[in-house]
Every structure is written in C-alpha cells, then in structure tokens.
Design brief:
Blueprint: H1 2-5, H2 8-22, H3 31-47, H4 51-65, H5 71-81, H6 86-117, H7 120-131, H8 133-142, H9 148-157, H10 162-172, H11 174-185, H12 187-192, H13 205-232
C-alpha cells in the first residue's frame, strides 16, 4: 500500500491533465479571448488589487504543474494586467511553484525506481549531472532548448535536490519572463488596432543572443572544471 501511495500525486496530475485536454480549456489561452474579456479582467484587477495577483499566480502554478501549453501567453497576459516588476515576479513565482509540484510528484513516484534500475552508463550520467546540477539547470532555463515540462521532469530522475531545482528555476526564468511581461505591457495598443500579434515578434535575434550569452555564462564553471580535470589527468 505504501508503494502505491507514492504514485498518487503523479496520478492526480495526469488525471487533471487529461481533463484539461478533454474540456479543451487551452482554447481560452488565446489573444482573441484576452481581447474579448480584457475590460472585465482589468476591472477585476482594479477592484481586487491583492486577490488578483494570487489568482494569477495560482492559475500559472496549475498551468505549469499540468504542463499546459500557454506559459508564454500567461506571462504576456500578466504583463498586460500588472505593472513591472510585479508582472515578472508573479509569472516567475507561478512557474516556479508549478515546476516544483511536478518535480516532486515525479521524484516521489519514479525517482528511486529509476535510480535502482539505471545501468552503469545512466548512473555515470546521473553523477555528472549532480556534480554540476546548478550550472546545467541554469543553462536549460536561460536557453529554452527543451520544453519547460521536460526540464521539470529530468532533474527528478537525475537526483537533483529540491533546493537546487527551485532556485535555479526561479533565477533562470527571470530574463525570459521579463521580456514577455514587458511585451505584454504594450499589448493594449495592439489589441485596439487591427494589428496581428505573434510571439515570434518578441523573440528577436537580439533577445535570443542575450539569452544564449547568459546560458553560456552559466556553463563556464563546469567547462573550466572539465578542462582542469583533463589537464591534471
């Protein structure tokens, strides 16, 4: 019975994910829906200045924990509803809380099993990842080469500690969250016009290069450690 209970958090998340897709809740995470309901939403934020941030963070947390596509939209949405730097912080807190939930669920359910069943090569990869976990995770957060949900799950299987996972997630997503939240701050004028809006317009080459540079900076310590080890060998 005890061995089954560790799967409950992960099963709950999977069931909720299925419900989200069956009910097609993701259709509400569109700019069309935002344009249609923006006056109502802005009014709610003005009338509930303390509750509305908590609601936003809660929705963001749930969205991240359930790996619902639309984190970028929610960050832009937050930038539209709240001023900087609060919009960035709300998005970062929501994403971090949600990531922690799925990380803990995966680690509790599958972490120990994979650790014992992993082969020698996997164990070696696991040890290498643990030695430089903070730097690797910062790179993966700063440079979104892989889906956010994948970076939430992989550390759970590689034995990364909760503290390391939490702080690297929080710090690593700040630059990207700031960029998208800042774009959301100017969304009102675009919604008033007939202009088309796309995420691609935000991720300019300047932004991509800046994020890549930050990511490479995070990898410098393990690279130096690696070459030092080779030199001393």
């Amino acid at each position: 019975m005890k061995s089954f209970t560790r799967f409950i958090p992960l099963l709950v998340i999977v069931v909720l994910m299925l419900l989200v897709y069956l009910l097609d809740i993701t259709e509400y995470l569109t700019f069309e829906e935002l344009k249609r309901n923006r006056e109502l939403l802005l009014s709610y934020v003005n009338e509930h200045p303390y509750l509305s941030p908590l609601v936003f963070i809660g929705v963001y947390t749930l969205s991240t924990a359930l790996s619902i596509p639309g984190a970028v939209f929610l960050t832009i949405f937050g930038g539209f509803l709240f001023p900087q730097p609060y919009s960035t912080l709300y998005a970062v807190f929501g994403a971090t809380f949600g990531a922690i939930l799925i990380f803990l669920a995966a680690k509790t359910a599958l972490g120990d099993t994979l650790k014992h069943k992993a082969g020698k090569r996997m164990q070696k990869m696991r040890a290498g990842f643990q030695d430089n976990a903070a730097n690797y995770l910062l790179f993966l957060r700063l440079v979104p080469l892989f889906p956010f949900w994948m970076v939430n799950l992989a550390p759970a299987f590689f034995g990364v500690t909760l503290l390391t996972f939490a702080w690297t997630t929080f710090v690593g997503i700040i630059p990207g969250a700031f960029v998208f939240a800042q774009a959301g701050a100017g969304l009102g004028s675009i919604l008033d016009s007939a202009e088309e809006f796309s995420v691609g317009e935000i991720l300019t080459w300047d932004v991509k290069i800046a994020l890549l540079a930050l990511g490479i900076f995070a990898l410098i310590p393990p690279m130096v450690k690696h070459f030092k080890g080779k030199k001393n060998a």
